[in-house]
Every structure is written in C-alpha cells, then in structure tokens.
Design goal:
Layout (H helix, E strand, L loop, with lengths): L4 E5 L5 H4 L11 H13 L5 E7 L2 E10 L12 E9 L6 H15 L4 E6 L9 H6 L3 E6 L3 E7 L12 H5 L5 E5 L6 H14 L4 E5 L3 H7 L7 E5 L2 E4 L5 H11 L1
Parallel strand pairs: 4-5, 8-9
Antiparallel strand pairs: 1-2, 2-3, 3-4, 5-7, 6-7, 8-10, 10-11
Helix pairs in contact: 6-8
Protein name: Acetyltransferase
Organism: Ornithinibacillus halotolerans
GO molecular function, one term: acyltransferase activity, transferring groups other than amino-acyl groups
C-alpha cells in the first residue's frame, strides 16, 4: 500500500480541528488546552507549528519561531529558533524532512539561519545527532549538558548562551518554579514538585515568565520554559516524578 505523507501547518483557523501533537491523547487536560491558547497568541509573532502525517496519522511535528519571540535563553540576531522536534514514527526520515522545511523557511524569510538547543540528558529537548546530520554545527554549551547548534545561511555572528548561570541561581533561596506555557507538560511537572514540597512543608513560589525579557533575565538554564531552583541549586529543568521531586528536595532540606 502506497504511503501518503503530508506536512500540515497549524493556523489559528485550523487549530481547533487539527490540534497540537503533544498531549493530544488528553485534549481536555489543562496542559493541552493551555498549549492551544498559547499557540493562538503566538502565530501572529511568526511562530510555525508543522505536523507531519503518514496516511492521515500524526507522525511528528516541529515548532519554531523568530529568536526575538523564542522561549530559549540564547542571544543572536535574525535567526529562527526550533523549540521542539518530535517524531513518533521513526526510521523514515521524517525528522530530517521537518528540519529541512524549517531551513527552507529560514532562507525564504532571509534569516541568518536556524538555532536549536539540545541536551542528551532529557527527552524534553531534541537529540543533537539528527541536526548534525542535517548540517548544523555546535557553537556553544552551558551547564547541565546544554548544547547550542546552528545552521547558518550567512556569515552572521554565531548565536551564544549567557555566561552568568551561577549568578542566576544565587537569586533563589526559597523553592521557586519558573515557567512559561510553551510546553503542555509544564502543568504536570509543576504539580509533581508541589506534591513533594507539600509533603516536606516547603513553601513554594511560582513565577510565570510573562515575556522574553524576563526569561532572558531569570531562567536558570537555556531551556527557558521550565526550571526549579531551591537553596540556590537547580532542582530540575524537565519533569520529575513526584518521588524524584520529593527525594531531591529532602536532600536539600
């Protein structure tokens, strides 16, 4: 049987019908609904969310945005930043196809290139290897395993991370969760930390980062979307189980 593969770009007009890829099995969850609402507000900022379908079945997606509107803590001029790349049907080159669609869009928009932040220690960022395979180069790194890769269309200056990561942690003695609604799993990740904190009777502060200025100033890692800090130490930059959150907090209490 011949396979039909198509790329579908989400828009404000088709979002309710098509829906985002992540957490799609729970369309009534707070995270899924919040993600769709977040997308509606970002399409006007140049965000692109493209799904790839195989025989009308969702096979993966890519989300990217101009750097000026990005949720990643990285500096640069006139780049597109890939927030997420995820492929559920592997071995068929779908990830490369999605990356290539982003590269071609960057060229069409006359962007300097495309940026992506990777980290081998979490599935919340895409893996580095597929980007290297598609012509990206690593140009910077940050604590906790974060890597900055770029595909350049011009001789523009390389993008780069901040260097004040340790100083950022010093601001947070109390248990603090910093987050944005860019990822639909943030709600669950937050709840898991709160459950652990409540068991230990630790007071928690949640900071909803309202704009890129706050994100660039406060985020404890390049990931930007989610970070947990306690007693000036990074607790998490991705979802922990309730047990892992409790254990980590107890070690520092």
């Amino acid at each position: 049987m011949e396979q039909t593969v198509e790329l579908i770009e989400l828009t404000e007009g088709n979002l309710e019908e098509k829906g985002c890829y992540c957490l799609r099995s729970k369309p009534n969850s707070v995270g899924y609904k919040g993600k769709n609402e977040w997308l509606k507000g970002k399409f006007h900022d140049g965000l692109k969310y493209i799904k790839i379908n195989e025989n009308n079945k969702q096979a993966g997606f890519i989300e990217y945005v101009p750097i000026e509107r990005s949720s990643r803590v990285v500096y640069g001029e006139n780049y597109l930043v890939i927030h997420c790349l995820w492929v559920g049907i592997t071995g068929k080159g779908y990830a490369s196809q999605l990356i290539e669609s982003c590269i071609q869009d960057a060229k069409k928009q006359q962007k300097a290139g495309v940026i992506v932040v990777t980290n081998p220690d979490t599935s919340w960022t895409p893996s580095k290897e597929v980007f290297i395979k598609n012509g990206f180069e690593e140009v910077d790194h940050a604590p906790y395993g974060f890597e900055l890769l770029v595909y350049k269309n011009s001789n523009s200056a390389n993008p780069h991370f901040p260097t004040d990561w340790e100083e950022r942690l010093q601001r947070f003695e109390k248990l603090t969760i910093l987050r944005t609604p860019q990822c639909p799993f943030i709600d669950v990740a937050t709840d898991n930390v709160l459950i652990g904190a409540n068991k230990l009777e630790i007071e928690t502060t949640t900071i909803d980062l309202k704009d890129r200025r706050e994100l660039l100033e406060l985020s404890p890692t390049p990931y930007g979307v989610y970070g947990v800090v306690y007693k000036k130490q990074l607790i998490a930059y991705h979802r922990l189980t309730t047990h892992s959150a409790y254990k980590r907090l107890k070690e520092l209490s």
